[in-house]
Amino acid sequence: MYTKVDWIHTNNDKWSMRMKNDHGLQPTYIDFLTPNFNAVSIQPQWEGQLTNTRIINNNIVNQFIGSVFWYSAIFKQANAALAAQTLPYAIYSFDAPFGNPNTAVMAGGNQNLFPQGRNVTQYQLVDDVSINKGNHGLKFGVNFRRDDITDASFGVRTIPRARVFSNTDFVLGFIDQFSQRFPQNLEERINTYDYGVYAQDEWRAMPKLKLTMTLRLDRNANATCPGHCFSRFATQFDRLNHDPTIPFDQGIHNNLDQAFSSVQAVNAQPRFGFAYNLHQNTVLRGGIGMFSDLYPATLVDNFATQAPFDPTFTIAGLLSPAEGTASAQATAAGCNTAFQSTFAGGGTVAAYKALAPAGCNVPDYHDTVNHLKNPTYVEWNLELQHAIGNRSSVSLNYVGNHGYDEFVFNDLVNAFDRGIGTVASGLPTTVPDSRVRNVNGLSNSATSNSHGLTTSFTERALYGLQFSLAYTWSHALDVVSNGGVLPLSLNDSVGPVANPFSPKALNYAAADNDVRHSFNANYVWQIPTHYQGMMDRVLGGWTLSGTFFARSGYPFTVFDTGATGRFFGNANGFAVGYTPYPQLTSSIPSCSGHSQTTGCLLSTQFTEDGSFGGTRRNSFRGPHYFNSDFSVLKSFKVTERIGFGIGANMYNVFNHPNFGNPNHDLASASTFGLVQTTVEPPTSPYGAFVGSAVSGRVIQLHGELKF
To answer: Model confidence over 598-609: pLDDT tens digits?
Structure first.
């Protein structure tokens, strides 16, 4: 439902109001065994905006925007009671033939992920004033935004997650990894806000030269929890006293109302741009500026969903609840009871171990620097554009970017070297802090750089034909991609740094989205006709349009999930081999082609030396990509005011197969180096979110009525 109201109070004072309401049901999870484990999400949404534009005088205009937005996105099981009755756990098997080290086969669905989600109320106020004064166009503005979030992420893993790494253990009733969370509440209120001010001057310095100078100041506030749901270390981990005789409550601060110890107070962002008419048909443009980024809410959840407010206990034990106090679930509950009692009583790790059932571990933890900064980016560009006649133009544009203070995780913060291997890692031989298990540390130590050069040509209205062509060469490098918090690709991205002593040593390399060569083209041709009568109805009214897109392959990293477990204490929750980038012993092979029978990578080209790795992240390239879409429309004129059209949209019109990156886990001996998946095009009638398998040609028929 959409409502629109416009009110002209006076010629100099205009108001408008927009309201929108939407309701939808998302089929969140469909189980392949039984609908008992299906999950859904009902997602209502309301939004409204009030705008006022007031002309104060001939040189001053003020615009005010106030908006309110509310939505709910709670993901839950369609029938939680039935799911629990069917199977009380979510079981994942990582052992052949049911699964492999990377992909598990599930029983019990994904019920350990539910319930979760959020209800969000957001309101925003924006006010801008524009002043014309001689050769200067001045602008000043202020904005304020607040989000009030009902966070339901505390429900994740309250239904236990059970992982099978040995089918033999499972047959004997033993579960290799049993993990459960024990939150004090299933929902908590999280609040955050940000505001900013800016001043801008667009100065016509000369008839051919225009300068733009801007200064923006932003404040991104520390997220708060009125229910005091945050817990974190007393100080960042590398400054913490790790003496195990120090009680839990002295090393961990609980019942906090702020997510971080401190955040950057103000982000100053100066910017400068220019446009110069070199010639009547030639313009040179350029600029440089600083831009800051917000920290994502995922980071806030890290400090709300940990001990003692919401601890997670990961153990091994007997799976069946019929085992009573000997079952894994009873043991996990006993771990939580013992920890809560020890923490509240000012006890130590020794006191917890004495009170807890056999097999209990201390909880995992998240760490962050004492003063968290906002990621900042310096961006610049220089563009030369030339018009050719009245219909054509050509441009050459260089764009650069440098990012610093970017987020990156180190999941070896509390790790120790188990003494397996021949190369010294530099890690301690015993756990640094026995009061916590796996510690994932967040810092602002990542950087990024990118450079790109784009040349384009545009042609308009040539015998009814409009088209544009563009070619881009670019190179992007970073320590970790996509802001360093969530992976760009679940299949190809690696997140935490490989070498905990030097984030750039192996991680600073081609970004996950680094594409060296890219070509784009699009066209629309309204076929002209000079016929009359019936011939015009047959041959006239045709419109053809389409796109071409080709690019070089995405990078990927070779790693080994089955390597000897030398380092213990990484964020996976159990001992695994931490050698994600094994040493390449040959020249870098090419995977630009594709084959499902002959791999572009061979396991014999790599070796393990027991260190943090020897080959940089994203050293390899996957297959290239090509796609073309095509549309045809035939329009008919019914009356003077009514028109009808019928046509077809063809996605991947040439039915060209595009292949994903090969399997790049050395632990997958039989499929390592083989391409096993196709890539879905970015355009399809199904949308991008639903994940439909539409890598082949798809034809969509459509009709339209114009009146």
So the answer is: 678 888 888 876
